[in-house]
Design goal:
The complex is a heterodimer of chains A (766) and B (282).
Chain A (H helix, E strand, L loop, with lengths): L16 H5 L15 E7 L5 E7 L1 H5 L3 E6 L8 E2 L6 E2 L5 E2 L5 E7 L2 H10 L1 E6 L6 H5 L15 E9 L11 E9 L11 E6 L5 E5 L4 H12 L6 E4 L16 H8 L7 E4 L2 H7 L5 E10 L5 E13 L5 H10 L9 E10 L13 H19 L3 H8 L19 H9 L2 H4 L1 H6 L5 E14 L8 E8 L5 E4 L9 H13 L6 E4 L17 H28 L7 E4 L2 E4 L5 E3 H7 L6 E7 L21 E14 L5 E11 L6 H20 L5 E2 L2 E2 L18 E5 L22 H13 L10 H13 L2
Parallel strand pairs in A: 1-14, 12-13, 16-17, 20-21, 27-30
Antiparallel strand pairs in A: 1-7, 2-6, 2-8, 3-7, 4-5, 9-17, 10-15, 11-12, 11-14, 15-16, 18-26, 19-20, 19-25, 22-23, 23-24, 26-27, 28-29
Helix pairs in contact in A: 5-6, 8-9, 9-18, 14-15, 17-18
Chain B lengths: L3 E2 L4 H10 L4 E3 L5 H4 L11 E3 L9 E3 L3 E5 L4 H6 L1 H6 L1 H8 L4 H6 L2 H7 L7 H6 L3 E6 L3 E5 H4 E3 L2 E2 L5 E9 L6 E7 L10 E9 L5 E9 L9 H7 L6 H14 L10 H13 L8
Parallel strand pairs in B: 1-3, 2-3
Antiparallel strand pairs in B: 4-5, 5-10, 6-7, 6-10, 8-9, 11-12, 12-13
The complex binds flavin-adenine dinucleotide.
Chain lengths: 766, 282
């Protein structure tokens, strides 16, 4: 390919495309090393119990076993966790879910490792477990964490605005419904893994598949009692993450193992089943809704009670619930709200961050309520949404004034004008025998950034290398979302260099600077803003230093061009290589920090949230789906999908669309088939033969419309687009099913079996 | 390290088998290797892979039957004019099996020997009255498929014996071929329920002959002469099919598992019959 200047707004090819397509790019899992040894974990296999006896002696004696470690061998607090440090690296006296790590083995090879793991004798006295939110909330419930002051309630919180619940009484119409969503798995391709080794000076290096290399350092340091300067984390491109690698997975275990291998590299790589059992999940939630409206469709009041099952450890449970609560009212103007949430410990697998962080769940509920209201009022469901859609300047359901770009009405209008919407009636009439057709819509949104209470900051670093190239040091992981391509575009735009002259360094705690986690749709927004400042500073420096060599008495005539700086008035130029040779190393590097702005309203609500509430910026989307339901089997076939997405300005149309498409595909899985099935805390479908993610044939053609607004606080006017698409498929497909059949499903996923049962039930009790 | 043998002829195969009587035999490996967890791969006895055994990789026709060598892949079958022209019911089933990658590796012999109630080639093979050919060093024997498969994952295959091929009668008497599978997604899906059907419809629309087979609703593929006969002489109408559908629901013996409940399987196995209303004659 010819050289081009990667610029803003162009469908610039992904910076990682060639290296990944040719297999040259190394994911964490591709890292081995000479003389490598293997680490693995013996898991509890019991959802709740006390360890009575743990005998590692036989395993330790097996030839080829290097170390067998238990909770007693963990230096430091033996507690990991992002905000609440409640998860042991290795269980001490108790186990709280089947995936708890009980012992860590390091061995010469994988066969010996497996053998040694099986030789560890673990005797656990089972304790009665809590496996549902209701069980966990009973006054006499067994406690998952005896030392947690609120018993099994990790966090109880309320958001209140206007007159709250009281306002329901004055409403013309009050609708009530309860919705259930199950546990979802991230199902990334590259399972949790890493390689660690101890260097001569005692420092431990770790190459790991992670969304948060800098935070990992703090988490490991806290859990293992190692000083921060003894840890070096390297975070290459990830083979998918979706939130499941935000927080320690293998990190603490691997660093602990590396302390026992005499400097040899140690690798841990969870297989798919272990990834299911021990990895993080999306929260199952039960949602009770009361929605009040006027007869003309104006929303008046909302009361909801949300119950998040957070599993055995806190992880980001409280923060996930906070975001769900903040979105519980949908992208609508509702003057009076009371939103109550309970985030509850159980002995189920650990729930945590996942794309659409708490919001994918409530989207099903608030859009389900809108569909019910439209039916009740005999109103066009799109008109109803448009009528209530939030506009800039409105206050949202949390009472926050929307001061920034707010494009949901534009998204709905784009759908309304599309042929799939206005030709839907004719299309529905053409349903083949034994099939019904329906068209559903959903209006969704997703906050961006950490929210109040946690500085959402990035530190960008850009360098003119001695070779005259531009090197961007990214401190924030790229798990496939393509933020690094945006970084290249920003550098190209400002520094006017060919794509072949721009290099990227992936996160590395010794080379790049702390820039927060790859999460919350923030990577391009926050780091990009910092990078703009750093690149502008570098451009000023390069022209400024070139002025000296080109004998220019003003900077006005100087222009940075590919590979050189030119004086346009005199025609004289200096190559960047020569400029670099003249500059000192520190002069060639620019560093800049950006801090995301926050909400300024003084809110008298949501006080229970230490961090992560409220948010200033949201991305929006309106989705439309056309489905065919098979009356003989209950199978839902998605025939067409349309997404109108507002995430500020589009920096790269191709990358934007990839996020929309990927999120919708994942959302279709969530809507139709994905469900982690649990029996007394044990996962019964921990593999891809029985945990059903969609395949290429299940995903229809997706039409993506970018509804651009300008977000003044964003780099070149953008906002994050990675998550919002996840939230639309479940509610829009449920809406389409209701449109086709009159059945409003309140429990997901909408499996063929559930749909057929509902159709039969409808026939028997019309 | 586990030894893997790749015989090119039957003679080589018998020699390898003499040397490694405990060896596991496989062809595409899409069932066998998946069931062998990576961690234990090294503890497996020797493996003998039939993939390169050219003698068994064939599709041939005689006057009244079609012979398929056991190591023929699903993709090869789907490309073959004989299969497409004469055995549409089998072709339709193959089209739903796994994914292009699985069809490139997986074989008809493997599908038969796995003997899963959800095996997609099995309902068509049952109603095509398939007979399997079993070879050992000393003997060849032939069994009807319904006798060869004796339970879920169970066959009459003896030690030292391989499945060399399968023969089906040309279904010249039938002018409707139909297969449908219900799975949890559109590809890479294990059948939750499936149905294969062969019908002969008279010009006036009466059913003159019928054969039905149901997958995934019993320990092996379910067929019943009484059900087939109940359709004969009837018009292809909603009423006649609905009556037979009800008899099917009473006949089948599905189980509850992680993919679906027995109730759902029972209902759908009957419902699938109604689809014949839309089936086109060939
Ligand atoms: C992702 C995936 C999706 C799948 N989807 C489907 C599906 O939709 N429908 C379906 O029916 N199946 C499906 N399967 C199962 C499998 O692909 C098929 O059953 C395939 O036909 C098996 O053929 P094979 O040659 O790979 O069998 P192998 O794995 O090689 O062998 C299977 C069994 O048969 C025995 N065997 C094989 N060949 C012979 C022989 N010639 N003589 C004696 N014994 C023999 C082996 O010992 C073993 O017990 C799927 C498998 C995977 C991994």
């Amino acid at each position: 390919m010819n050289a081009y200047i990667p610029e803003i707004g162009k469908p610039v090819p992904r910076a990682d495309a060639v290296a990944k397509a040719t297999g040259a790019e190394k994911y964490a899992v591709d890292h081995y090393g000479d003389n490598i040894v293997w680490a693995g974990v013996r898991r509890a296999g019991v959802a709740h119990g006390r360890i009575r006896h743990l005998d590692t002696s036989v395993a330790s004696l097996l030839p080829g076993v290097i170390a067998v470690l238990t909770g007693r061998d963990v230096p430091g607090t033996n507690r990991q966790g992002i905000i609440h440090k409640d998860q042991p690296v290795l269980a001490d006296e108790k186990v709280r879910h089947c995936g708890d790590a009980v012992a860590l083995v390091v061995a010469e090879d994988r066969a010996t490792l497996q053998k040694a793991l099986s030789l560890i004798r673990v005797e656990i006295d089972p304790l009665p477990g809590v496996f549902t939110v209701d069980d966990a909330l009973r006054p006499d419930a067994p406690l998952v964490h005896e030392d947690h002051p609120q018993g099994n309630v990790l966090l109880k919180a309320t958001i209140h605005s206007g007159d709250g619940q009281v306002a329901l009484e004055g409403c013309d119409i009050i609708l009530e419904e309860t919705f259930h969503v199950p546990v979802q798995s991230h199902a990334f391709i590259e399972t949790e893994n890493g390689v660690a080794w101890q260097e001569r000076g005692g420092k431990v290096a770790l190459v790991v598949s992670t969304q948060a290399p800098f935070r990992d350092k703090w988490e490991i340091s806290h859990a293992l009692g190692l000083p921060l300067d003894r840890l070096h984390i390297i975070g290459p491109y990830l083979g998918g993450a979706f939130g499941g690698k935000d927080g320690a997975t293998v990190q603490c275990l691997l660093v602990l193992a590396a302390l026992h291998t005499g400097g040899r590299r140690v690798k841990m790589w969870w297989n798919r089943e272990e990834s299911f059992i021990a990895g993080y999940k999306r929260h199952a939630v039960r949602m009770h809704y009361h929605l009040g409206a006027r007869t003309d469709g104006t929303l008046q009041a909302l009361h909801c009670r949300l119950y998040y099952d957070t599993g055995a450890y806190a992880h980001l449970g409280g923060e996930v619930m906070a975001l769900g609560m903040e979105h519980a009212g949908g992208p609508y103007r509702i003057p009076h709200t009371l939103i109550e949430g309970w985030c509850v410990y159980t002995n189920n697998p650990i729930a945590g961050a996942m794309r659409g962080f708490g919001v994918a769940q409530v989207s099903f509920a608030f859009e389900g309520m809108m569909d019910l209201l439209a039916v009740k009022l005999g109103m066009d469901p799109l008109e109803l949404r448009l009528k209530n859609a939030l506009l800039r300047g409105d206050r949202n359901a949390s009472g926050v004034t929307l001061t920034q770009s707010t494009g949901i009405a534009d998204c709905l209008t784009a759908v309304q004008h599309h042929s799939l919407w206005h030709e839907r009636k004719a299309w529905k009439k053409e349903a083949p025998p034994f099939h019904k057709r329906g068209v559903g819509i959903a209006a969704v949104f997703n906050a961006m950034g950490y929210g109040r209470g946690l500085p959402d900051s990035a530190l960008a670093k850009v360098e003119l290398t001695p070779e005259g190239r531009i090197r961007v040091y990214s401190g924030v992981s790229d798990m496939g979302q393509g933020n690094t391509t945006a970084f290249v575009q920003i550098a190209g735009q400002i520094l006017c260099q060919d794509h072949t002259a721009i290099e990227l360094i992936q996160p590395d705690t010794e080379r790049t600077l702390p820039s927060g986690s790859a999460s919350a749709g923030r990577t391009t927004y926050t780091y990009g803003n910092a990078l703009i400042k750093a690149c502008e500073e570098l451009r000023r420096r390069l022209t400024g230093r070139a002025a000296l060599m080109l004998l220019s008495d003003t900077l006005d005539d100087l222009e940075l061009l590919p590979g050189r700086v030119k004086n346009l008035a005199t025609g004289r130029e200096i190559p960047l290589t020569a400029l670099a040779a003249m500059m000192s190393p520190e002069d060639r590097v620019c560093i800049s920090q950006f801090l995301m702005p926050v909400v300024r309203d003084k809110l008298d609500t949501g006080k229970e949230f230490v961090i992560g509430f409220p948010h200033l910026l949201f991305s929006y989307a309106a989705h439309l789906v056309c489905i065919e339901v098979d009356e003989l089997t209950g199978v839902i076939d998605i025939k067409a999908y349309l997404a109108a997405t507002e995430a500020g300005r589009v920096l790269n149309p191709q990358a934007f669309e990839q996020q929309v498409q990927g999120a919708i595909a994942q959302g279709i899985g969530y809507a139709l088939s994905e469900e982690v099935l649990l029996q007394e805390g044990r996962i019964v479908n921990p593999d891809f033969a029985t945990y059903i993610i969609p395949g290429a044939l299940d995903i229809p053609e997706i039409v993506s419309l970018a509804v651009e607004t300008y977000e003044p606080s964003g780099p070149y006017g953008m906002k994050g687009v990675g998550e919002v698409g996840m939230n639309g498929p479940l509610p829009s497909i449920a809406g389409a099913l209701a449109d086709a059949s009159g059945i409003h499903m309140t429990r997901s996923p909408l499996t063929a079996e559930r749909v057929l049962a509902a159709l039969q039930n409808q026939q028997e009790h019309p | 390290m586990t030894q893997v043998y790749l015989p090119r002829t039957l003679t080589e195969l018998w020699t390898y088998l003499d040397g490694e009587p405990e060896a596991l035999i496989y062809t595409g490996g899409t069932d066998l290797l998946v069931k062998m967890p990576a961690e234990n791969a090294n503890t497996a006895p020797a493996l003998i892979c039939l993939e390169r055994l050219g003698e068994l990789r064939c599709i041939r026709e005689t006057a009244d039957s079609i012979l398929i060598g056991s190591t023929t892949t699903h993709a090869e079958l789907l490309r073959h004019p004989l299969i497409l022209a004469q055995l549409p019911v089998l072709a339709q089933a193959l089209q739903t099996l796994g994914s292009p990658l699985i069809r490139n590796m997986g074989t008809i012999g493997g599908n038969i020997c796995t003997a899963s109630p959800a095996g997609d080639t099995l309902p068509p093979l049952y109603i095509l009255e398939a007979e399997v050919e079993l070879h050992s060093r000393k003997a060849v024997r032939i069994l009807p498929i319904r006798e060869f498969i004796s339970g879920p994952g169970k066959t009459q295959l003896q030690k030292g014996e391989i499945l060399s091929g399968v023969a089906v009668k040309k279904p010249a008497d039938y002018n409707i071929h139909h297969f449908e599978k219900v799975g949890q997604r559109k590809s890479m899906a294990c059948a939750v329920a499936s149905m294969a059907a062969l019908l002969r419809l008279s010009p006036s629309g009466l059913i003159e002959a019928a054969r039905l087979a149901l997958g995934s609703v019993g320990p092996t593929v379910v067929t019943a002469t009484a059900i087939d006969e109940s359709l004969i002489g009837k018009k292809l109408s909603l009423t006649s099919l609905a009556a037979t559908a009800e008899r099917i629901r009473q006949l089948v013996a599905p189980i509850d598992d992680v993919r679906a409940s027995a109730d759902y399987r029972r209902t759908v196995s009957g419902n699938l019959l109604l689809r014949l209303l839309d089936a086109r004659t060939q």
